[in-house]
């Protein structure tokens, strides 16, 4: 039993060290050390192992349990970015926003187009922001850029492209007047990883798994570096905005990543402020993945946040948030 406890302790120390590595993503850019950003992908698993081992120390009446419980406080906010509880969650505000990666970006040729329009009519949101979507033909209230789009029933004052070096990602801003207030909406689709399930699915062949792991790293790290370049343009659009900002979209980045820390700088995560439950929005893989977000300036207070898992029109669920000025 003593040998098992010693092994568990070594594993626990390693897990805590890796968890601390995710906190360093706030400071270490991908172009300096891109491998560090990969730890954020494993954060849910690392936290689960940390929780189970801490529970083991508690049940075996070991004093080290106190140490690991105190260490857990370091990860309170990082955990809330994945799973959260807000006592007054559900009290809706006067401004309703939807962000939805519709995957196809050619819905006019797809039978789900009617279902998508029914969903939007039912929700009656002030602004709907799409990623990976392109509607064919003319649609009232729609603003279309490559890969990203927007629908609103309010007055559009100004808009423009943001990312100048996009390959497969894109972002734009739109200044919209709502209830006498002007808000700058920024719709983001950061560079995708272009992954397929076969690339991450393990096999019985150990050598093949090693090759897959190497290929996956070769795909992830360069994309992290592209994200760093694209975020420079997005942050510029946020900082130079003459109006309060709502920043939303598919960031192709999980919480506690370098992208999350720097895109959310000076803004509120609507899920952390007003959400309850899990924020997981991408459901194509059987692994908790949150890559869809809605952030806002301090002047715009999040009142509710929901991932609508009843809408199965894409490999993403739409995220819906309401706000008050």
From TrEMBL:
GO biological process, one term: GPI anchor biosynthetic process
InterPro entries: Endo/exonu/phosph_ase_sf, Endo/exonuclease/phosphatase, GPI-anchor_lipid_remodeler
Gene Ontology cellular-component terms listed: membrane
Keyword Nucleus belongs to the record: no
Domain Endonuclease/exonuclease/phosphatase: 100-316
Claim: Transmembrane helix is one of the keywords in the record: yes
Transmembrane segments: 6-28, 35-59, 65-83
UniProt keyword list: Membrane, Transmembrane, Transmembrane helix
Molecular functions (GO terms): catalytic activity
Entry protein name: Uncharacterized protein conserved in bacteria
């Amino acid at each position: 039993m003593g040998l098992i406890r010693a092994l568990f302790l070594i594993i626990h120390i390693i897990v805590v060290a890796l968890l601390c590595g995710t906190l360093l993503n706030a400071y270490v850019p991908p172009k300096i050390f891109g491998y560090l950003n990969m730890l954020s992908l494993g954060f849910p698993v690392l936290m689960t192992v940390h929780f189970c081992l801490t529970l083991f120390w508690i049940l075996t009446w070991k004093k080290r349990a106190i140490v690991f419980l105190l260490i857990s406080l370091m990860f309170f906010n990082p955990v809330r970015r994945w799973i959260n509880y807000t006592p007054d969650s559900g009290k809706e505000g006067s401004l309703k926003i939807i962000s939805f990666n519709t995957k196809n970006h050619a819905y006019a040729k797809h039978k789900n187009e009617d279902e998508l329009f029914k969903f939007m009519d039912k929700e009656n949101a002030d602004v709907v922001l799409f990623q990976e979507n392109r509607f064919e033909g003319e649609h009232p209230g729609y603003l279309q850029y490559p890969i990203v789009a927007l629908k609103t029933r309010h007055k559009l004052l100004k808009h423009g492209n943001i990312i100048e070096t996009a390959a497969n990602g894109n972002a734009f801003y739109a200044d919209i007047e709502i209830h006498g207030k002007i808000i700058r909406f920024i719709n983001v689709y950061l560079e995708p990883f272009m992954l397929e399930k076969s690339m991450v699915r393990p096999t019985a062949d150990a050598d093949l798994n090693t090759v897959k792991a190497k290929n996956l790293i070769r795909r992830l790290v360069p994309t992290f570096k592209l994200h760093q370049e694209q975020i420079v343009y997005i942050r510029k659009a946020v900082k130079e905005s003459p109006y309060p900002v709502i920043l939303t979209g598919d960031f192709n980045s999980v919480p506690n990543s370098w992208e999350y820390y720097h895109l959310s700088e000076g803004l509120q995560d609507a899920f952390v402020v007003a959400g309850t439950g899990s924020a997981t929005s991408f459901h194509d893989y059987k692994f908790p993945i949150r890559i869809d977000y809605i952030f806002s300036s301090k002047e715009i207070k999040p009142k509710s946040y929901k991932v609508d898992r009843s809408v199965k029109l894409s490999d993403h669920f739409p995220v819906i948030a309401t706000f008050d000025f």
